[in-house]
Amino acid sequence: MRKSRTAYLFIAPAMIYAMVFVLLPIAGVVFLSGTDYNILRGSPAWIGLRNYVELVKDQRFLVSFRNTLVFMAGVIPSGIVLSLLLAVGINMKMKGRGVFRSIYYLPQVTSFVAVGVVWHWIFEPRYGLANLILRSLGLSGLRWLSDPSTALFSLMVVHVWKFLGYKMVIFLAGLQSIPESLYEASAIDGAGKVRQFVSITVPMLKPILFYVFATGCIGGFQVFDLIYVMTQGGPLNSTTTVVHQIFLNAFEYFNLGRASAMSLVLFAIIFMLTVTNFRLFGSVFTGVE
Amino acid sequence: MTRYRGALALLLLVLLLSSTVVSANTLEVWIKDFTPETKELFEKEIIPRFEAAHPGVKVNVQFLGEAILQKLTTAFAAGNPPDLFHHGTALVPEFAVAGTCQALDRFIEREPDYLADFFESSLAAGQYQGKTYAIPQTVLSQLLVYRASMFEEVGLDPNAPPRTWDELRDAARKLTIWDGDLLERAGFAVPTSGVDTVFFYTLVLRSLGGSLVAEDGETPAFNNEVGREALQIYVDLIQKDRVTMLGSITPAPGGPMVTGEAAMVIDTPHILANIRAYAPQIESDIRVAPAPSRDGTTPASILWGVSFYVPTAAKNPDLAWEMIKLLTSPEYNLRNAQSLGAMPSLKSLITSGYVQDDPLMRQWFEAVEWSRANPGYPAYREVRNKMAEHLEMALHGRQTPEAVLEAAAAEAQMIVDSWKSR
Fold first, then answer.
1. Which of B190, B198, B189, B191 is nearest to B390 (CA)?
2. Residue B416 to residue B384: CA distance in whole angstroms
3. Which residues of A88-117 are buried (b: 16+ CB within 10 A; e: fewer)?
4. pTM of whole model > 0.90?
């Protein structure tokens, strides 16, 4: 009994934090989603499910949902593959490994505003580095952030670049925990580098792959900072995302009821996706039934 | 422990009292637009002067920039707003209807001549249903800004700028330079994304005698012949005349005039401040003129600027009013405007050296007379943001101007009705 009391005392701060800053606000959002609460006006009036009914008919919300899915489909696989290859490269015994690791991690610790400003210049149609490279290869330049057909792709490039270092460090930790003896034994059996990567590295990294995939999905659904800094959802709503629409409804139009309904829909989707991830891939990646 | 209980209780009481005393005598001021010069003006002069005139009062100024709106909404929701803040007048109707900001008439009535020196159009922008909610600190009008040397380069007379939209389009076509599929120089740079598209469309519409809203001040009134004509001019500048390019031409501060990538723009005197800061060598090449109109006699200009509001829940409204009077006094009204590259909101300051010694600034000041603010009704900001999306469809050639205005007017009416029912 005394040990339980001590244990509860130790976890109390975290529990209080979770209650006050996580559970209570979620409960507040659930309540507000059924109201027409305008943040300036004070008392909300109950309107039931009207916000949800309107969401189904809201073209902007549906477009933002589609954009978010496309965004995730672009950044998650490419981010995982590139960061894994980068981690394998960095893991090799070479001089300056620590320096390279720091350089690749730098974008992760750079603010989104700074990243947005720099990439705006990189994507600038006339003087930007991106088009200079394309033109040097004999191709014509693109309008990148100004063209509805390339704007979302441009943001995907920035997103993958920004989080490459973070995923690389996680994979690196996983790679360094793989016993060297496995590689030595496979080398004796005649396995080359590619075979070792496919048959040893990837299977041994399955728990980490699952973690990176799951957190990538959660993060992908919540993408906002880049959109806010670089495109404001344009051109032609080609880069607006669900969280961007939540922000607009809450802080531009002061319609917190509608924003809360969107948040709850997003929460439900992320929750179901995470549960599905665990159900479908959890046992495969962790080896636990 | 018992020994110290009394001391602890006394300490807690002192802390509680001191915090209460500090907050009641602290005037919280939130400023939106500022430069390093503005901050220095506040810190070195305005704050010490106000505190000396009001012993026991401490002034706490926060310089917030564009983040002020988000901070304000959370402060209002928490019931803890500043005593005084600074913002454009687009928020006046929403704040008035929500009761978030108080009408300042009870202060104005004590000083009958206080409003006499302000520009009428600027005062009107801060009023809603006959009451004054915002006092102007700066005003900004719009003029056509152009490069004389670029005019001469293509055989145009810089002393005879275009006065009609047809003349402007002719001049812009001559001034435009394309390098393959990339625009090297825009003959006339116009916004092609975001809410700036609505502002430019409004200017063109007004110059043709049209209006965004009907006489009731909120019913959409742009889905008609003159509305379509205005949007067609806007679309043709991009799609037919190709005098500008979709998307921003440069992310450089100050825009394309500063980088030499545009020959003409319509802008406020902020452009002058940017040119002086980033490209002073071209300042002598800059000319201004009234924006084009149908026959050259009805130029339009949207009136901008920032104004002071006092929240309803302000702890020190009387002190806030004293601070407004200080900040709008001729001395600080002028110096603050100078620090921002804007124009002072007092008519009498036209005689100041800041205006008289600068022929360009003098023309912007004179343009305030025919400038009008954007429509002022509670749903306007939401209508404006969503209308921008519709206008972009026309500018990108995805829909005809007729279809775009039909959809935009229908949605605007829906938003207006929805606000009325709240």
1. B198
2. 11
3. bebbeeeeeeeeebeebeebeeeebeebbe
4. no
| pLDDT per position as a tens digit, A78-96 | 999 999 999 988 888 778 8
Tokens coding B385: 């943001």
Q: Which 3 state secondary structure label does DSSP give B86? A: strand
Which value, to the nearest 10 degrees, does the dihedral of the CA atoms of residues B280, B281, B283, B284 take?
150
Contact A146 B247 (CB under 8 A): yes
> Distance from B381 to chain A by nearest Cα, in Å?
8
Length of chain A: 289
pLDDT at B261 over 80: yes
Are the C-beta atoms of residues B176 and B243 closer than 8 Å to each other?
yes
Whether residues B396 and A146 touch (CB distance < 8 A) is answered with no
**How far is Cα B170 from Cα A82, in angstroms, rounded to an integer?**
52
Structure tokens at B10: 């006394």
- Which A residues 150-189 touch B at CB under 8 Å? none
Condensed to tens digits (0 to 9), the pLDDT of residues A172-211 reads 999 988 888 888 898 898 888 888 888 888 888 888 988 8
* Total residue count of chain B as it appears in this document: 422
Query: What ipTM does this complex have?
Result: 0.81
Q: Identify from A58, A64, A236 which residue to disrupt to test chain B contact, counting B C-beta atoms within 10 A and taking the largest count.
A: A236
Three-point CA angle B89, B94, B99, nearest 5°: 115
For residue B81, is the peptide bond before it cis, meaning its omega torsion is within 30 degrees of 0? no
Out of A60, A143, A232, whose CB is closest to B194? A232
pLDDT in tens, B190-240: 999 999 999 999 999 999 999 999 999 999 999 999 999 999 999 999 999
CA–CA separation, B107 vs B110, rounded Å? 6
Query: What gap in Å lies between CA B407 and CA B383, rounded to an integer?
Result: 12
Segment B274-318, tens digit of pLDDT? 899 899 999 999 999 999 999 999 899 999 999 999 999 999 999
First to last CA, chain B: 58
B224: phi then psi, degrees, rounded to nearest 5: -150, -170
Mapping DSSP to helix (H, G, I), strand (E, B) and coil, where does residue A145 land? helix
Q: What are the chain B neighbours of A236 within 8 Å (beta carbons)?
A: 389, 392-393, 396, 398
| Each residue's pLDDT tens digit, B58-105 | 999 999 998 898 899 889 988 899 999 999 999 999 999 989 999 999
Phi, psi (degrees; rounded to nearest 5) at B343: -110, 145
* Selection from A77, A76, A103, A96 nearest residue A169 by Cα: A103
Distance in angstroms (rounded) separating the CA atoms of residues A42 and B74: 12
Nearest CA-CA partner of B373 in B234, B268, B233, B273:
B268
| Rounded Cα distance, B46 and B31, in Å | 13
